[in-house]
Design goal:
- The chain is an alpha/beta fold.
- It has a single domain, classed as TIM Barrel (Alpha-Beta Barrel), CATH 3.20.20.
- About 40% of the residues lie in helices and about 15% in strands.
- The protein is built from ten helices and nine strands.
- The chain has helices at about 15-25, 35-40, 60-70, 90-95, 110, 115-130, 170, 200-210, 215-225, 245-265; strands spanning about 5, 5-10, 30, 50-55, 75-80, 100-105, 140, 180, 230-235.
- Strand 4, helix 3 (about 60-70) and strand 5 form a beta-alpha-beta unit.
């Protein structure tokens, strides 16, 4: 990896392309989350990776990763928030046009301050909005670490299946069979600093198996060496993947600060 100001440049588009090539060359089938949800029974013996992207900010970066995947004839799932930094209609259309899945990155309980009745109305309205661009079948919770509210709590009162939704990763992936890997915290072992984007039930088992990777090169090495899990959901936040050095440095600095805040939240959880 390239070195800049004393740091190794991971999380670049070039490195993402290298990662996808490594997975492809080593026999991994690429799936959208929608495809996983509709093909579960047929995938029990298949080596696969579900490519999931949470578009929290900088939607333009998501178009860049979508182009890389399209060039490899691979499809991925892109989950968009309703906030302006994510909700860019022309970019959503462009990504959908390349054959990728579009989903709703919902945070309705946070936006509605824990009021479930208001949140479900907001959810339905925004879901219908995103269905202008794609026949949305899956959704994914936005972690919102600084919020008091976990938006998954909406499903303690309501059922997303009633809205034509067939999958939500935190409910509909069998993590006893599928390894979860996310770049939350701008590192692949960020479960230590993640407030909600983690699978605590199985994390200790994965650690015991040695399925812990800090940087992208370690993942590529494991894939090429045959020690990487056969079935994986891989989540990225495209806002942090860039080849532009100035943007890379800013993202590196901001995420370092965020990780400190997240550690404080984990030690001292927010209370109403």
């Amino acid at each position: 990896m390239e070195i800049i100001i004393g740091f190794t440049m991971d999380f670049t588009l070039e490195k993402y392309d290298e990662l996808l090539h490594a997975l492809d060359d080593n026999g991994y089938q690429f799936l959208t989350f929608e495809q996983y949800c509709t093909q579960k029974e047929a995938l029990s013996e298949v080596r696969f990776v579900i490519l999931r992207h949470d578009v929290d900010l900088k939607a333009e970066n998501s178009l860049a990763t979508a182009k890389i995947e399209h060039a490899l004839e691979k499809q991925a799932s892109y989950y968009f928030r309703v906030v302006e930094q994510s909700n860019k209609p022309e970019i959503i259309k462009a990504i959908a046009a390349k054959g990728h899945e579009i989903g709703y990155h919902y945070e309705d309980m946070s936006l509605c301050e824990g009021n479930a009745e208001n949140a479900i109305l907001h959810f339905e309205k925004q879901l219908n909005y995103f269905r202008q661009f794609y026949s949305v079948k899956t959704i994914c919770m936005h972690g919102a670490p600084r919020s008091l509210y976990d938006s998954r709590d909406l499903w303690k009162t309501y059922d997303y299946h009633d809205f034509g939704i067939i999958g939500e990763p935190y409910y509909d992936v069998d993590f006893s069979k599928v390894f979860y890997l996310t770049d939350t915290g701008r590192r692949w072992d960020g479960f230590h600093v993640s407030v909600r984007d983690k699978i605590p039930t199985y994390q200790d088992q994965w650690i015991e198996k040695g399925w812990v990777y800090h940087d992208t090169d370690q993942i590529i090495e494991a894939v090429e060496g045959g020690s990487f899990p056969d079935r994986v959901m891989m989540t990225t936040h495209p806002q942090r993947w860039t080849d532009e050095k100035g943007e890379w440095v800013v993202e590196f600095g901001l995420q370092s600060i965020k990780n400190v805040v997240k550690r404080m939240v984990i030690k001292h959880p927010l209370r109403e």
